[in-house]
Design a protein that fits this description.
The structure is a homodimer. The first copy, chain A, is of the alpha/beta class. Helices cover 28% and strands 25% of the residues of chain A. Chains A and B meet through helix 8, strand 21, helix 10 and helix 16 of A and helix 9, strand 21, helix 11 and helix 17 of B.
Chain lengths: 557, 557
């Protein structure tokens, strides 16, 4: 399809749909392009909505990147808002569309069709779910409603159900507006895509900032008053007062119209597409949150609904629909968020996912500085890397910290795309100057630490394993090798204290028959202590990864 | 060498040397380690010194990362400061060292020797060079001297000779202290490792911030007063008053002692080493600024003297010297600096270097936002990418801007390490959330723009080519397709104006026999204008890369 009078129809007018429309026009000045959306707005910044509610982004219009009139004037693209596509007839190559203003059904013929219907928030059918002031956040209309309720000053208490990225962003932005927020998560940890140890670092931060976090407890039902406004939430274990509830328990691909038309969906319940974004039905493409991806690490289908991926898929579908050839091979599940000044990001697999996918893994938790220690404004970050023991390739990374983490996660995402080994990452020629990095960037330090473990040069143990083993009564010595002052400022309950500079001399105070786990502030000195103890003839010694900086189980003085 | 009584000697106590020492101790608790340095301080942050002079870093002691006593106490490493290694006897495996305090010559035997003698600033033998207050900046002593002179309030005018990174950092930090700075560069552009078009963007910024920049003019001699203080600088073309001169015309590898010992140096005049950091002489390694590297793009010897590389080389040499096996394959020449709030970075080859290395290149200049447009604090960056037309692989990138560039240069450096094509870079799964990036990150947008040029989808021309062609009287139409208001706020002299939304209707006003070059603010609309003109039957149309944002040749109203 590359000439006059051909018709490209796109269903969906947000990220993937409008990117496909704009790219299609750049591919051909002649094709007729029509976009249908059942929403009032198109091309809006879904990811910016929590910040709009939090007053970080002041104007609604800033969220709306483009209006239909712009697309008509600049690109000769017809965008019909408040028009819901209700059926696809693949045999006749037609789409049936309902005009939501008039109720009229219209039929349009297409030569090529791109489905970009996005995802819908999951609304669990709990008692009281239809009460007022229970919201999901997906559209501009949702954001405006939530914001105006907050603006009214009537919201003292809010419950946010679900602790994914939207849940956490809402918890922050509502808190910024003076609302007391309780975050409720059914699972045993917040941030389900992350490992528990990294999620606990984020949870500590939320708690510090005044958000009450409840895990292992889900919403059972909602209470309301006579005016039908929500007043409270009952979990299995408690009643929480609530003038507002944000449901952020997940989203699911919006695929009804596709399934009805005989388009296949995969195990993820999103539409199956090949690298060209083609569905199983000729001339029909699917892109964005309604479509499935391939995970570049596992090679298996994955569903990662993100604006960044949507834009890339939309572009590829448009090129192919207009007779070109482009491919999109897959995703790493790279995600990032900012919550109360803490940056949180992940790419590739977390340790739990890697084990589940069948890998034999080695992991390391490494605290580091985001820039040179002596440069003003230098801040800490904590990196967790997970590698495949057999191939020595990196499988994924999680990073949390007030310092700069986005560049480190992007570097790792890039390296993962090319199947990098941990050793290759440790040798990358990254940019160094004091305002930007340490001479050996945090990523390089982290890769070296993990490589030392992979090669058996050092032996570490994650804090979570230490607490698990202590809880089941394992007989090991927990050895704090920090200075007297550090030890007094807070140490792990039950630990022994010998400062590093006295360790060689005092090693004989230690019981040689017991395993020793050393810790310091961040892990480096603890690892050095292991070497001293090994030289002194101790055999069962390990250092605690990330040490006190990664320890989220409390300290005593 | 892995056991008791073996002796590792390291000559040089800054980045590479001390990293090698510390890593060697981690490899073996038994080896005897001695470091000699002719300086007073070790392990100092050379890259932080301009910021110390500028009072950004307040205390000298912050620059000194570790003291000799620390290395003795913590790592049992003997560091002898003010001890200059004067000769290596490779046959006897001995080093002769002069104690600079006593004048005594001492001889030490080594089993393994690591040379980390660094580089020395180039001091051109010009008339008046021995006057007081003419400085190079390489050691802590240099920094302290310069800072105390500035602190004295006696410096009104300074001339900085040489416009590499140190020169620019000194120009900024002296300006911050209230000194009037003139930057003098012999070449036709500042920042010699960069392309002229990108360097001109930096030069404009320096000028805006009050630094006078003189190019194509070098220092000829210095004038002084009776007290032997410098008072002025004569270039070929003018006399500049100066109470202080900073010479930053380059550095050269400090290899005298190595050459005398029969150790080979390469074409770069730095010591030739293999991937294991071994020199041609058994048991002698060389690391850091005195040693040569391999350029990962060209595969040829390169000399890139940077703290980040020094640390990696030191680590590899230590592992190998202690009987292990590690390799360092080479560098991309990744560099970054901050100057008056402008970030400037490069990795891989610039266009000039790529052409010189024999590549057929395509390049693109792409302005972009560092985060989502609607997120507060979003800033511009300008990216130049250079690719190999034949393989479609990226060869290098340069980025300049007040926005975040370090992560983009690091992502590209990582991609270059794995031989990425431009298309692969455009599909990277980089982290997206409004505070960190656009949905399609600046790098992805830039790769798409360059890919469009590589695939012949679009045809662009760099601003520098436009000015060159105009200066030689080429008969093309320069077409400004921005809005009336934008045009009036400043446009390129001699350009025609037809707003984009009127272009299709008014295309027949244009002379079809002449080549047309379109421009807008950043290049996107100009590229769209080309498509409109092509649809209207125009054949010779190009858009100007980066358009007004990359245009450094002045505007008229």
């Amino acid at each position: 399809m590359s000439n006059t009078s051909k018709h490209l129809i796109i269903i969906g007018g947000v990220a993937a749909g409008m990117k496909a429309a704009a790219k299609a026009r750049r591919e051909s000045q002649y094709v007729k392009i029509t976009v249908f959306t059942d929403e009032e707005h198109i091309s809006y910044a879904g990811c910016g909505m929590p910040y709009f509610i939090g007053d970080v982004i002041k104007e609604k219009k800033k969220l709306i990147i483009r209006e239909p009139a712009y697309f008509k004037a600049m690109h000769n693209i017809d965008v019909l808002t408040l028009h819901r596509a209700t059926a696809i007839n693949a045999r006749l190559k037609q789409v049936v569309v309902k005009n939501l203003k008039t109720g009229q059904d219209l039929t349009f013929s297409y030569d090529k069709l791109i489905i970009a219907t996005g995802a819908l928030p999951i609304v669990p059918p709990l008692p009281g779910i239809s009460l007022d002031n229970i919201f999901t956040l997906r559209t501009v209309a949702d954001a405006v409603q939530i914001k105006s309720l907050v603006d009214s000053g009537k919201v003292k208490n809010a419950v946010v159900a679900g602790s994914g990225f939207i849940g956490l962003e809402m918890a922050e932005n509502l808190s910024l507006r003076g609302v007391k927020v309780v975050l409720v998560e059914l699972l045993g940890q917040i941030l389900p895509p992350f490992d528990e140890d990294m999620a606990r670092l984020v949870q500590s931060h939320l708690t510090e900032k005044g958000v009450e976090v409840i895990t292992s407890d889900g919403v059972k039902d909602f209470e309301g008053n006579r005016e039908n406004y929500v007043t409270g939430v009952n979990t299995g274990k408690r009643r929480l007062p609530a003038d507002m509830v944000i449901l952020s328990v997940g989203i699911s691909p919006n695929t009804g119209i596709a399934i009805d038309a005989g388009i296949k969906v995969g195990a993820t319940r999103a539409i199956t597409v090949n690298e060209r974004m083609e569905t199983n039905v000729p001339d029909i493409y699917a892109v964005g949150d309604c479509a499935e991806n391939t995970h570049l690490i596992t090679g298996k289908p994955a569903w990662v609904a993100l604006g960044s991926t949507a834009a890339k898929m939309g572009r590829v579908a448009a090129i192919n629909a207009l007779g070109g050839n482009d491919t999109f091979n897959g995703v790493l599940g790279t995600v990032i968020m900012k919550v109360f000044g803490l940056n949180v990001a992940k790419t590739g697999l977390c340790e739990r996912e890697a084990i589940k996918a069948g890998y034999t893994v080695e992991s390391a938790i490494i605290p580091a500085s985001d820039k040179s220690h002596y440069y003003p404004g230098c801040k800490d970050i904590i990196i967790k890397l997970v590698a495949d023991v057999n191939t020595k390739k990196l499988l994924g990374a999680q990073i949390v910290g007030e310092g700069v983490i986005d560049k480190r996660i992007d570097v790792i995402a890039t390296a993962l795309s090319f199947g990098a080994t941990v050793d290759q990452i440790s040798k990358l020629d990254l940019a160094y100057a004091p305002p930007y990095a340490m001479a050996m960037d945090a990523i390089i330090v982290a890769a070296n630490v993990l490589n030392n473990k992979l090669l058996g040069r050092t032996e570490g143990i994650l804090p979570q394993k230490v607490i698990e083993r202590r809880n089941r009564g394992d007989n090991f010595i927990l050895l704090d090798i920090r200075t007297e002052m550090e030890f007094k400022s807070g140490h792990i309950k039950g630990s022994l204290h010998i400062p590093l500079d006295a360790l060689a001399a005092r090693a004989n105070e230690l019981d040689r028959t017991r395993e020793i786990i050393t810790y310091c502030r961040a892990g480096l000195r603890a690892s050095h202590a292991c070497r001293i103890l090994k030289s002194a003839g101790f055999e069962k010694v390990k250092y605690m990864d990330g040490s006190i900086m990664a320890w989220t189980y409390g300290l005593e003085k």
